[in-house]
Amino acid sequence: MRSVVADRGAGRGAAKAQPRNPLRVAVLMGGSSEERNVSLASGCEVAAALRAAGHRVTSIDSAVGAMPPALERKILDSGIGRAEVPVPSAGDPNTLRDAAVIASEPALADADVIFLALHGGAGEDGTIQTLLEVAGVPYAGSGPVACALAMSKDLTKRLLRDEGIATPGWILGSAPGSVVANRLGLPVIVKPVSGGSSVRLTLARSAREVDAATEVAGGAGDTVMYEAYVEGREFTVGVLDGETLPVVEIEPVNELFDFDCKYETGMAVETVPARIPEELAGGLKSAALKVHRLLGLKHYSRVDFMVDRQGKTWCLEANALPGLTGNSLLPKAAGAAGLEFSRLCERICVLGRDTGARRGTW
């Protein structure tokens, strides 16, 4: 087990000396998933940090196309969910969607590397990654299969179970609240099987609440998953280039680490490095690396855990494209390791470029 050793830097987004070989980076963000606003926030933060580090950056919304600088500034100034940037209707002749963006945007073809700041939907389930592979464009992050595995909480949990990594019990597919309560106990987590950012996630305390939560989780036509609730302490571990970042402990203001707690300032206490015994920290890091490798993840990821009242560790899920907003956990962990934000983004870009070069995808 290894931990990241990084150069000490200044704060998030601090300007750096001009790099010897500036990269041409296209930051792909937005899209049409329910996590669109989170993705836009991540992407604009990444673009600003890379520019501050001296790289040539183009920002592209995968649902629309190239992003005007004024809109980037608006998103950066407004924060997550406050700068509403609607997705044009499918009938809009100026709309470029997924494959059309990749085929039509010159900045993507000309870039040394694509930085994927996409969350949810086609941006994180392997679809966009497949399109980039077919186009022969080098990109940072995990490949199509690894993304698909990590995005499906059911497939992830099956692999964890088969590998002997403890994960809370679950049921896949809509079921009556009474059946869920009987099999998994109460309270229980109800959520879309492929959702992210805690969107449409509910902690249900009765069979009636389970039934109501099922309607919410499946409201967009998604498959519903029920997961046994683990009471205890919540932790997350980032992985960067095959090495672990410091463990983060998360103490949300709300009962769950929900959307508000993740993205609203002051809604969670996040301690990094976590104030826990070395044995527990080492165990969490070892488990995170094991999950990262089991799913075939690449370049960077984040793995989430609960430690119950008896001290047992439970793996909840892995994130192939973790958030990179001002409130996100991976940048905070990297900062605790001495890797400030622009250097983190730069390092991820170099990993993507070098992987593309080895594949010959130029």
In total, how many beta strands? 15
Characterize the main sheet.
6 strands, antiparallel
Count of helices?
13
Give the mean pLDDT.
Answer: 86
Percent in helix: 25-40%
What's the alpha carbon Rg, rounded to whole Å?
20 Å
Order of helices and strands: EHEEHHHEHEHHEHEEHEEEEHEHEEHH
Structural class: alpha+beta
Could you list the spans in which at least 5 consecutive residues all have pLDDT below 50? 1-15
Q: Kindly, what is the distance between the CA atoms of the first and last residues, rounded to a whole number of angstroms?
A: 34 Å
Q: What gross morphology would you assign?
A: globular
Strand proportion, as a percent range, falls in 15-25%
Polypeptide structure, described:
This protein is globular. The chain has helices at 36-52, 69-78, 99-104, 106-110, 127-135, 144-151, 153-162, 177-184, 207-217, 259-263, 278-294, 329-336, 341-359, and strands spanning 24-29, 56-61, 65-66, 113-116, 139-140, 170-172, 188-192, 202-204, 224-228, 232-240, 243-244, 248-252, 268-271, 300-308, 313-319. The chain is built from 13 helices and 15 strands. A hairpin with a 2-residue loop joins strand 10 (232-240) and strand 11. Helix content is 37%, strand content 20%. It is an alpha+beta fold. Strands 10, 11, 12, 13, 14 and 15 form a 6-stranded antiparallel β-sheet that branches. A 5-stranded mixed β-sheet has the order 3-2-1-4-5. Mean pLDDT is 86; it is low at 1-15.
